[in-house]
Amino acid sequence: MSNQENGMHRGLKNRHIQMIALGGAIGTGLFYGSAATIELAGPAITFSYLIGGLVIFFIMRMLGEMAVDEPVSGSFSHFAYKYWGEFPGFLSGWNYWFNYIVVSMAELTAVGIYINFWFPDIPHWLTALVCLVLVTLLNLISVGTFGEFEFWFAIVKVVAIIGMIVFGLFLIFSGINGEATGFDNLWIHGGFIPNGMIGILFSLVPVMFSFGGIELIGITAGEADNPQKSIPKAINQVMWRILIFYVGALSVLMVLYPWNQVGADGSPFVMIFSKIGIPAAATLLNIVVLTAALSVYNSGVYSNGRMLYSLAMQGNAPKLFAKLNKRGIPVAGVLVSSGITLVGVILNFLLPGKIFTYLMAVAIIAAVITWTTIIIVNLKFRKAKIAQGEGDALHFKTPLHPYTNYFCAAFLVMIVILMAFTESMKMAVLVLPIWLLILWISFKIKKSRESK
Prior knowledge:
Elements: H1 3-6, H2 14-25, H3 28-31, H4 34-41, H5 45-69, H6 76-83, H7 86-115, H8 124-139, H9 143-173, H10 196-211, H11 216-219, H12 227-256, H13 268-275, H14 279-314, H15 331-350, H16 355-387, H17 403-420, H18 426-451
Helix pairs in contact: 2-9, 2-12, 2-14, 4-10, 5-10, 5-12, 5-16, 5-17, 6-7, 6-16, 7-8, 7-14, 7-15, 7-16, 7-18, 8-14, 8-15, 9-12, 9-14, 10-16, 10-17, 13-14, 14-15, 16-17, 16-18, 17-18
């Protein structure tokens, strides 16, 4: 069934798709979560993002290969269901929904932290609640409105990062009072790789949180006006842009200020410009990082509604979620997802200042499940296409298939092992088998009801 036939509107243009992808990946992971990466890797943080970016690029090409061939709403959940089996489709869909629920909670938490830069007495939970209501209402208007807002949210981030890089380079080579900053900060505080290769390895964990959300490109395929053109262009262009923004911006920060004095009380971007005596730049960047958090949360609300819609169309969620309003919006999915995200508001009330790290760990685990599913399903998808004699007809093939699949799978296994040896993230690894068991039991209950 086409998306036009079932009511889903193809209202997202190529510029929307590209900026949605940027919006999903350039957010709190970069502007706030990078503090944890800097602490582990020091100036070598650039290596960490290059490695993580390469892995994510390959995974995105795997998803893109399938999304271009079959542009449907729900993306990899649909492919898992079709090419792997009922339970993988059930698991991948509900896990991705859960992943973005947790990411949404993390973004709302970050919004509170950013607001405290100006208004330290406003509690995080209150800021989170206001943002939740406003963004939910925005997503109930139309998909075109969502795309337009996300486009401009992303434009603000991109322009700001480029401006920060240019301004940072000016400070490096000329200085505020005519005295150049120089590059000494890259090595005088324990060396370029102060914590050795172990530090770089462990830094890959928060790095992967930074890249979480870029798979949203695949979710948008069902509402893209020309998916065969826009999806490949978005994947190929967005990845190198993100690497430039991440690596370029963080390289400038590492040169401007000692890495071991950054701290984690706010965004490293804001803190550094504030500490080197440029409050105007710090204030402007805080506006940008606030916009970034709202952008990712906006993408989360959009994604969750569409994933519940896809699950309902498969029969893996209540039929209520398969209903669209006249504007093609899955209202029930959007409202229920936002309602559950209220848990994040409650957590911010109960554990102010502590919840972000825990949410990040759970989000990484959920993202690893999603990415692993994409890797395995892509292998099965390609095998099915070859068996049908359509292997050579694919328009957007994964480079070096299937070796890149095996490489990325091994990398994700390593990420989970590293998390098991990280005190603040160990609990998320222990929760992993429990979460998979819950999904398995839920699937069995669903099947037993269908057989009656």
